[in-house]
Design a protein that fits this description.
The protein is α/β, with parallel strands linked by helices and 352 residues long. The protein has helices at residues 2-24, 26-35, 64-79, 97-106, 116-119, 139-147, 149-162, 200-208, 221-227, 237-242, 268-272, 276-310, 321-337, 339-351, and strands spanning 42-43, 49-54, 84-89, 111-115, 164-170, 176-179, 193-196, 212-215, 232-235, 251-254, 262-267, 314-317.
Length: 352
């Protein structure tokens, strides 16, 4: 009996010691989940602010998202003498657009390059930049409008309604129609099962063109074209090339209906940690990033349009006047609902 008590006592001591050992190295056991979650900024012992910036597209040298993010990080580092440094996370490493946007809102992620259709779930104001055919496939016109007072007002409203810091627009090539039958005019759009993003303004636009808008995940487009589930989709040529959509399409119809606005955002928390001089440097870097994305979009559009031709696709240029007239009611609808949209459309018209 006495021997049994001794053994029990030794067992309790061992359990206690083991518990203390585990608690002492608990961080080693817990890092798995925490490391995969977006975290806010941190400062090193020498005062360097380390921040994180994410985007969903895989890193590609001539993709506007990549160029914008890398330009931004480089210029921020230069302008702050290395005191602010952004670590970059492409390819959805920090989650999808919605995940990152919500993390930015909560201050758990410092910055991101985020697509406007996702932001539309929080504020409708950015639909101004997605109004159909207002830019006439003109990159310089789009840049003047979005970097000007009316475009900046859209970003200000975004800040007010979504509690983020909107630094600048990011540009990418205009979007066109990819189909397996030729589109020679507006009549050919009637009843076309067209994949689109699940965004009200986009659905309104493609309904106005007479198509049957079919929202589906982007990753399902290739198979849907193969099986005939859809008759076509709309995309820029960079995305079409990356996804090898030339293997399941025969025609590209030059439409340029919109650009699918993208925004470079920061969390209010991260922005508030910067001094006035640092904020100025970050804002200037964002403007340089925007211009860099515009320049690469022009070059990439020309490059990958040629790739489409080389892969055997027929490029159709058509009279867009009927398309513009058919979608005018969509512009009227959103301009009546949102004053900033009305102002932005008028500003674009004045710049033409």
């Amino acid at each position: 009996m006495k021997k049994r008590k001794v053994l029990i006592g030794i067992g309790l001591v061992l359990v206690l010691v083991l518990g203390l050992m585990l608690s002492g190295c608990g961080s080693k056991w817990d890092t798995g989940n925490k490391a995969s979650q977006p975290q806010g900024s941190s400062s090193t012992s020498d005062g360097i602010k380390k921040m994180r910036l994410g985007w969903v597209v895989a890193r590609q040298d001539d993709h506007p998202y990549t160029v914008a993010a890398e330009t931004f990080a480089k210029v921020v580092k230069e302008k702050t003498n290395g005191k602010i440094q952004f670590d970059l996370y492409p390819g959805g490493q920090l989650g999808g657009d919605r995940d990152m946007f919500e993390a930015i809102q909560m201050g758990n992620l410092d910055a991101g390059v985020i697509s406007a259709p996702v932001i539309a779930g929080f504020t409708k104001v950015l639909v101004g930049a997605d109004m159909p055919y207002i830019f006439n496939n003109d990159y310089d016109l789009m840049y003047k409008a979005e970097s000007g007072p009316a475009g900046q007002k859209l970003l200000q409203r975004l800040e007010e309604e979504a509690s983020v810091k909107a630094l600048s627009f990011v540009y990418q090539p205009f979007r066109h129609f990819f189909t397996n039958k030729p589109i020679k005019g507006l009549d050919d759009m009637k009843g076309l099962k067209l994949r689109c993003m699940e965004t009200p303004v986009h659905i309104d636009i493609f309904k106005a063109l007479g198509t049957n808008p079919t929202p589906m995940p982007y990753n399902d487009v290739y198979t849907a074209m193969q099986t005939g589930t859809i008759d076509g989709f709309e995309s820029d040529v960079i995305g079409a090339n990356a996804s090898k959509f030339y293997e399941v399409s025969k025609y590209v119809t030059i439409s340029g209906h919109f650009n699918n606005a993208v925004v470079l955002l920061m969390s209010q928390k991260a922005w508030g940690q910067l001094s006035p001089d640092e904020q100025k440097a970050v804002q200037e870097a964002a403007q340089e990033a925007a211009k860099a994305s515009l320049d690469i979009s022009k070059k990439a559009n020309e490059k990958y349009m040629q790739v489409m031709k080389d892969k055997g696709l027929t490029i159709n240029e058509i009279d867009l006047k009927p398309f513009i007239a058919a979608t005018q009611p969509v512009i009227d609808k959103y301009a009546a609902q949102i004053p900033e949209v009305k102002e932005f459309v008028a500003a674009v018209k004045a710049l033409k």
